[in-house]
Write a structure and sequence with these properties.
Mean pLDDT: 79
Radius of gyration: 20 Å
Shape: globular
Number of helices: 6
Structural class: alpha+beta
Distance between the termini: 46 Å
Low-confidence stretches: none
Strand content: 15-25%
Largest sheet: 5 strands, mixed
């Protein structure tokens, strides 16, 4: 008789790992496909499409690097919300006249792997809009991101100051705005409300705490 328990356990482990990898790859391909479709409809040239799509995928890559488990140190895929926001917004902080014009102040709370991808997309879209039309479009504009947590909702407030005067859009929301709304409603069971203050837009995001941890 030959004890094959170890071999069978190794085979089951490889099958489990292969199944998990297949699931993750399919999810990534679905996200990339959706982003490609959205970007193709919101841009007019191939160069513009390539640039915006690359930025979106890069934002997801930064979020993934932050959230993945560390061997022998962490067992679950999670990150701190403040760290995630700081990493995602760091590239925009270097585009102004002074460093530190982007301030992130949030309580210590964990963000799961699934919600990290969604938040990365949302933050990128908000930052891109600010870079085009809002506070980040000028050297002296500032951005404050704050957060409060209660049992019924996590409230994230995006406050811009020092940019060009803003007003509520007269046209229907673009694809980027719809991406934010759908991502919040679908993946995070949340919502977003805009206050088009003259000195800068204020966006208030509501997120389900249970979904944030996924």
């Amino acid at each position: 008789f030959i004890d094959v328990t170890g071999r069978k356990q190794a085979e089951e482990g490889r099958e489990l790992l292969a199944g998990e990898m297949s699931h993750r790859v399919k999810n990534l391909l679905a996200i990339a496909s959706g982003l490609t479709a959205i970007t193709s409809r919101s841009t007019t040239t191939t160069e513009q499409m390539a640039h915006e799509l690359t930025q979106r995928l890069t934002a997801l890559g930064r979020a993934h690097d932050l959230v993945r488990p560390v061997p022998d140190q962490t067992t679950s895929a999670s990150a701190l919300l403040g760290d995630l926001l700081s990493v995602l917004l760091a590239p925009y902080d270097d585009l102004g006249a002074f460093s530190g014009r982007i301030r992130v102040s949030v309580p210590r709370m964990s963000v799961g792997e699934v919600s990290t991808t969604t938040i990365a997309l949302i933050v990128h879209e908000l930052a891109t809009n600010s870079l085009k039309y809002g506070a980040l479009s000028v050297d002296t504009g500032t951005l404050d991101v704050s957060c409060s947590a209660q049992n019924e909702a996590v409230t994230l407030v995006w406050t811009e100051n020092g940019g060009p005067p803003v007003s509520a859009p007269s046209k229907a929301p673009g694809y980027g705005s719809r991406l934010i709304e759908r991502s919040l409603a679908g993946a995070l069971r949340g919502s977003i409300v805009y206050d088009w203050a003259k000195e800068g837009v204020i966006a208030t995001l509501k997120i389900d705490p249970e979904r944030l941890a996924l």
